[in-house]
Amino acid sequence: MEAMVTESDRFWDATAEEEALYVNRRYPLVANGLRMLEHAAAALAEEPDRDEVTYPVLHLHTAAEALLRGRTAIDPSGDVWPVGNGERDSNRHTRGEYERLGLLEAADVADRWCDTDIEAARADLMAFAHVRNRVLLSSDDDSDSLTAIRCRALPVLDLMLSLVETDILGQLAQDVFGQHARSVRRSVRRVRAATERIREAVEERRRAIAWLIHEEVVVPCPYCGQFAVLTGDEKIDCLLCGREFGFSIQIQ
CA 109 to CA 103: how far, in whole Å? Predict the structure, then answer.
Protein backbone atom coordinates (compact mmCIF):
# COMPACT_ATOMS: atom_id res chain seq x y z
CA MET A 1 0.00 0.00 0.00
CA GLU A 2 1.45 3.32 -1.05
CA ALA A 3 1.95 5.97 1.62
CA MET A 4 -0.58 8.76 1.49
CA VAL A 5 0.86 12.05 0.30
CA THR A 6 -1.11 15.14 1.14
CA GLU A 7 -1.38 17.99 -1.30
CA SER A 8 0.66 20.18 1.06
CA ASP A 9 3.55 17.73 0.84
CA ARG A 10 3.90 18.18 -2.91
CA PHE A 11 5.64 21.08 -4.60
CA TRP A 12 2.49 21.46 -6.61
CA ASP A 13 2.72 25.08 -7.67
CA ALA A 14 5.24 27.82 -8.34
CA THR A 15 4.79 29.34 -4.89
CA ALA A 16 5.81 26.13 -3.15
CA GLU A 17 8.82 25.73 -5.44
CA GLU A 18 9.86 29.31 -4.73
CA GLU A 19 9.70 28.63 -0.98
CA ALA A 20 11.99 25.61 -1.27
CA LEU A 21 14.42 27.44 -3.56
CA TYR A 22 14.50 30.42 -1.24
CA VAL A 23 15.42 28.30 1.78
CA ASN A 24 18.04 26.49 -0.31
CA ARG A 25 19.65 29.75 -1.46
CA ARG A 26 19.42 31.66 1.80
CA TYR A 27 20.02 28.81 4.26
CA PRO A 28 21.85 26.02 2.38
CA LEU A 29 22.96 24.25 5.57
CA VAL A 30 19.35 24.01 6.72
CA ALA A 31 18.07 22.89 3.31
CA ASN A 32 20.78 20.27 2.78
CA GLY A 33 20.60 19.08 6.38
CA LEU A 34 16.84 18.58 6.12
CA ARG A 35 17.18 16.64 2.87
CA MET A 36 19.70 14.27 4.42
CA LEU A 37 17.58 14.00 7.58
CA GLU A 38 14.59 12.97 5.48
CA HIS A 39 16.60 10.38 3.55
CA ALA A 40 18.04 8.91 6.74
CA ALA A 41 14.71 8.72 8.60
CA ALA A 42 12.85 7.23 5.62
CA ALA A 43 15.53 4.57 5.04
CA LEU A 44 15.78 3.56 8.72
CA ALA A 45 11.98 3.28 8.88
CA GLU A 46 12.18 0.58 6.19
CA GLU A 47 14.12 -2.71 6.44
CA PRO A 48 17.44 -1.96 4.73
CA ASP A 49 20.01 -4.72 4.19
CA ARG A 50 23.37 -4.52 5.93
CA ASP A 51 25.08 -3.01 2.89
CA GLU A 52 22.25 -0.47 2.56
CA VAL A 53 22.19 0.76 6.16
CA THR A 54 25.57 2.49 5.86
CA TYR A 55 24.14 5.38 3.87
CA PRO A 56 21.28 6.42 6.20
CA VAL A 57 23.73 6.31 9.12
CA LEU A 58 26.14 8.59 7.25
CA HIS A 59 23.25 10.82 6.13
CA LEU A 60 21.94 11.20 9.69
CA HIS A 61 25.40 11.93 11.07
CA THR A 62 26.04 14.59 8.42
CA ALA A 63 22.51 16.00 8.70
CA ALA A 64 22.92 16.54 12.44
CA GLU A 65 26.19 18.40 11.91
CA ALA A 66 24.71 20.50 9.09
CA LEU A 67 21.58 21.47 11.04
CA LEU A 68 23.53 22.34 14.18
CA ARG A 69 25.79 24.56 12.13
CA GLY A 70 22.84 25.78 10.10
CA ARG A 71 21.14 27.26 13.15
CA THR A 72 24.29 29.20 13.98
CA ALA A 73 24.70 30.37 10.38
CA ILE A 74 21.21 31.91 10.33
CA ASP A 75 22.55 34.70 12.52
CA PRO A 76 24.94 37.00 10.60
CA SER A 77 27.42 36.90 13.48
CA GLY A 78 27.37 33.10 13.70
CA ASP A 79 30.93 31.91 13.00
CA VAL A 80 30.60 28.50 11.36
CA TRP A 81 33.31 28.89 8.75
CA PRO A 82 36.59 29.06 10.70
CA VAL A 83 39.76 29.23 8.62
CA GLY A 84 43.40 28.75 9.43
CA ASN A 85 44.21 32.32 10.40
CA GLY A 86 41.03 32.73 12.45
CA GLU A 87 39.47 35.25 10.04
CA ARG A 88 36.42 34.76 7.83
CA ASP A 89 37.27 34.61 4.13
CA SER A 90 34.38 34.36 1.66
CA ASN A 91 36.66 33.21 -1.15
CA ARG A 92 38.05 30.35 0.89
CA HIS A 93 34.51 29.50 1.98
CA THR A 94 33.39 29.30 -1.65
CA ARG A 95 36.28 26.96 -2.44
CA GLY A 96 35.50 24.80 0.61
CA GLU A 97 38.83 25.67 2.25
CA TYR A 98 37.50 26.16 5.75
CA GLU A 99 38.14 24.09 8.85
CA ARG A 100 35.57 21.34 9.14
CA LEU A 101 33.68 21.11 12.42
CA GLY A 102 32.91 17.61 13.61
CA LEU A 103 29.51 16.64 15.02
CA LEU A 104 30.44 17.24 18.67
CA GLU A 105 32.25 20.51 17.87
CA ALA A 106 29.18 21.70 15.96
CA ALA A 107 27.04 20.77 18.98
CA ASP A 108 29.27 22.83 21.26
CA VAL A 109 28.94 25.87 18.99
CA ALA A 110 25.17 25.49 18.52
CA ASP A 111 24.58 25.04 22.25
CA ARG A 112 25.54 28.70 22.76
CA TRP A 113 22.83 29.82 20.33
CA CYS A 114 19.95 27.39 20.84
CA ASP A 115 17.01 27.17 23.22
CA THR A 116 17.10 23.41 22.62
CA ASP A 117 19.26 21.76 25.29
CA ILE A 118 22.04 20.45 23.06
CA GLU A 119 24.37 19.69 25.96
CA ALA A 120 21.87 17.24 27.48
CA ALA A 121 21.98 15.23 24.24
CA ARG A 122 25.77 15.20 23.95
CA ALA A 123 26.04 11.57 25.11
CA ASP A 124 23.48 10.51 22.49
CA LEU A 125 25.39 12.37 19.77
CA MET A 126 28.64 10.75 20.84
CA ALA A 127 27.02 7.31 20.88
CA PHE A 128 25.74 7.83 17.35
CA ALA A 129 29.16 9.03 16.21
CA HIS A 130 30.46 5.65 17.43
CA VAL A 131 27.71 3.94 15.40
CA ARG A 132 28.94 5.81 12.33
CA ASN A 133 32.49 4.62 13.01
CA ARG A 134 31.39 1.02 13.48
CA VAL A 135 29.33 1.04 10.29
CA LEU A 136 32.37 2.21 8.34
CA LEU A 137 34.90 -0.08 10.02
CA SER A 138 32.98 -3.29 10.77
CA SER A 139 32.62 -6.31 8.55
CA ASP A 140 29.18 -7.71 7.76
CA ASP A 141 29.64 -10.40 10.40
CA ASP A 142 30.57 -7.91 13.12
CA SER A 143 28.25 -5.00 12.40
CA ASP A 144 25.47 -3.42 14.44
CA SER A 145 22.01 -4.79 13.79
CA LEU A 146 19.28 -2.57 12.36
CA THR A 147 17.62 -2.55 15.79
CA ALA A 148 20.81 -1.31 17.47
CA ILE A 149 21.18 1.43 14.87
CA ARG A 150 17.56 2.45 15.29
CA CYS A 151 17.96 2.65 19.08
CA ARG A 152 20.94 4.99 18.73
CA ALA A 153 19.35 7.00 15.90
CA LEU A 154 16.08 7.78 17.70
CA PRO A 155 17.44 10.32 20.22
CA VAL A 156 19.38 12.05 17.41
CA LEU A 157 16.25 12.26 15.24
CA ASP A 158 14.25 13.60 18.20
CA LEU A 159 16.96 16.19 18.88
CA MET A 160 17.03 17.34 15.26
CA LEU A 161 13.24 17.65 15.14
CA SER A 162 13.30 19.72 18.32
CA LEU A 163 16.14 21.85 16.97
CA VAL A 164 14.35 22.59 13.70
CA GLU A 165 10.97 23.29 15.30
CA THR A 166 12.25 25.27 18.29
CA ASP A 167 15.27 27.11 16.96
CA ILE A 168 15.43 27.07 13.17
CA LEU A 169 11.75 27.62 12.39
CA GLY A 170 11.63 30.26 15.11
CA GLN A 171 14.39 32.16 13.36
CA LEU A 172 12.90 31.72 9.89
CA ALA A 173 9.57 33.06 11.15
CA GLN A 174 11.34 36.31 12.02
CA ASP A 175 12.55 36.67 8.45
CA VAL A 176 10.77 39.18 6.22
CA PHE A 177 10.02 36.17 4.01
CA GLY A 178 8.77 34.11 6.93
CA GLN A 179 6.18 32.35 4.77
CA HIS A 180 9.03 30.36 3.22
CA ALA A 181 9.30 28.41 6.46
CA ARG A 182 6.35 26.35 5.21
CA SER A 183 8.67 24.23 3.07
CA VAL A 184 10.67 23.42 6.21
CA ARG A 185 7.49 22.45 8.07
CA ARG A 186 6.55 20.03 5.29
CA SER A 187 9.95 18.39 5.59
CA VAL A 188 9.61 18.19 9.38
CA ARG A 189 6.26 16.38 9.05
CA ARG A 190 7.82 13.75 6.82
CA VAL A 191 10.77 13.24 9.18
CA ARG A 192 8.44 12.99 12.18
CA ALA A 193 6.26 10.37 10.47
CA ALA A 194 9.31 8.23 9.63
CA THR A 195 10.71 8.67 13.15
CA GLU A 196 7.49 7.37 14.68
CA ARG A 197 7.70 4.26 12.48
CA ILE A 198 11.25 3.69 13.73
CA ARG A 199 10.11 4.19 17.33
CA GLU A 200 7.29 1.67 16.94
CA ALA A 201 9.71 -0.92 15.52
CA VAL A 202 11.96 -0.49 18.57
CA GLU A 203 9.01 -0.61 20.97
CA GLU A 204 7.84 -3.84 19.37
CA ARG A 205 11.23 -5.37 20.19
CA ARG A 206 11.00 -4.05 23.76
CA ARG A 207 7.57 -5.59 24.25
CA ALA A 208 8.94 -8.95 23.17
CA ILE A 209 11.44 -8.93 26.06
CA ALA A 210 9.25 -7.27 28.68
CA TRP A 211 9.86 -10.27 30.96
CA LEU A 212 13.36 -8.89 31.63
CA ILE A 213 11.96 -6.49 34.22
CA HIS A 214 11.59 -9.49 36.55
CA GLU A 215 15.25 -10.50 36.24
CA GLU A 216 17.61 -9.67 39.07
CA VAL A 217 20.54 -8.25 37.08
CA VAL A 218 20.17 -6.67 33.62
CA VAL A 219 22.88 -4.41 32.18
CA PRO A 220 22.92 -2.05 29.18
CA CYS A 221 24.20 -3.23 25.85
CA PRO A 222 27.19 -1.10 24.72
CA TYR A 223 25.86 -1.20 21.14
CA CYS A 224 22.14 -0.41 21.34
CA GLY A 225 22.35 1.18 24.81
CA GLN A 226 19.29 -0.67 26.11
CA PHE A 227 19.07 -2.65 29.35
CA ALA A 228 18.69 -5.99 27.65
CA VAL A 229 21.79 -8.03 28.58
CA LEU A 230 21.63 -10.70 31.27
CA THR A 231 24.86 -11.36 33.14
CA GLY A 232 26.21 -14.85 33.60
CA ASP A 233 29.09 -17.22 33.10
CA GLU A 234 28.02 -18.49 29.68
CA LYS A 235 28.26 -16.78 26.32
CA ILE A 236 25.70 -14.00 26.34
CA ASP A 237 23.99 -11.66 23.93
CA CYS A 238 21.74 -8.62 23.87
CA LEU A 239 18.14 -9.76 23.84
CA LEU A 240 17.01 -6.55 22.14
CA CYS A 241 19.47 -5.95 19.31
CA GLY A 242 20.83 -9.49 19.04
CA ARG A 243 24.49 -8.57 19.51
CA GLU A 244 26.49 -11.62 20.61
CA PHE A 245 29.26 -11.34 23.20
CA GLY A 246 32.00 -13.92 23.44
CA PHE A 247 32.56 -13.15 27.11
CA SER A 248 30.61 -12.78 30.31
CA ILE A 249 29.76 -9.39 31.74
CA GLN A 250 30.89 -8.92 35.31
CA ILE A 251 29.22 -6.44 37.66
CA GLN A 252 31.71 -4.48 39.75
Answer: 10
